[in-house]
What we know:
The protein is of the alpha/beta class and 196 residues long. The protein has helices spanning 14-25, 32-41, 45-56, 62-73, 91-103, 118-132, 139-162, 175-194; strands spanning 2-7, 29-31, 81-85, 110-115, 166-170.
Amino acid sequence: MTRLLIIGPPGSGKGTQAHRLSEQLGIPGISTGDMFRTHLAGQTPLGIEAEEYLDSGNLVPSHITTAMVQERLRQQDTKNGFLLDGYPRTLSQLEDLDHILKSIGHTLDAVLEITVDEDEIVRRLLLRSRIEGRSDDTEAVIRHRMQLYREETGPVVAQYAQRGLLFSVDGTAEVDQVTAGALKGIETVRTRRTAL
Ligand code: AMP
């Protein structure tokens, strides 16, 4: 049973690692960013509501995001674990997640943080914007998203560190190396916690 979070700034390779880890661990990956983009592409009411936030790099209001996550975590395929990617991004979402997990009788096993410095992030995201054409990959929006990450998600990372759940992996290493480091980190945190 593996219940994991992956946290990292935009452009840290978090999405790539989330896909690889969920595949290797045999658990569903749940990316709030992907869920919003799918809604947006399908022009669902939720997608239309989220559009302005996604385009400006702002956070979609928590009541919308949390309701979406809650509904997803109640689905059967998450019974044996999941890898949540991109949520929680604020302390208030962290509390919401605590409540959701409590209501379904689960706790987290580990939280993986991917670290990459800001200049490298801007370089990577500008490159990605040319390849993928994502509307939130302009330099001004990138810098805004990074600022939000520092200010809003920084305290989330600190809180999980305090709970003894956090391990960090250098996201500038080769993709395979980051995955290997992440798998090792997950095991280390799990072993440490079962030994408690
Ligand atoms: P991501 O792909 O994780 O970088 O997310 C892309 C965009 O989706 C973000 O810039 C936000 O607009 C929105 N989003 C994703 N996750 C969340 C969340 N936990 N809370 C609020 N907005 C989110």
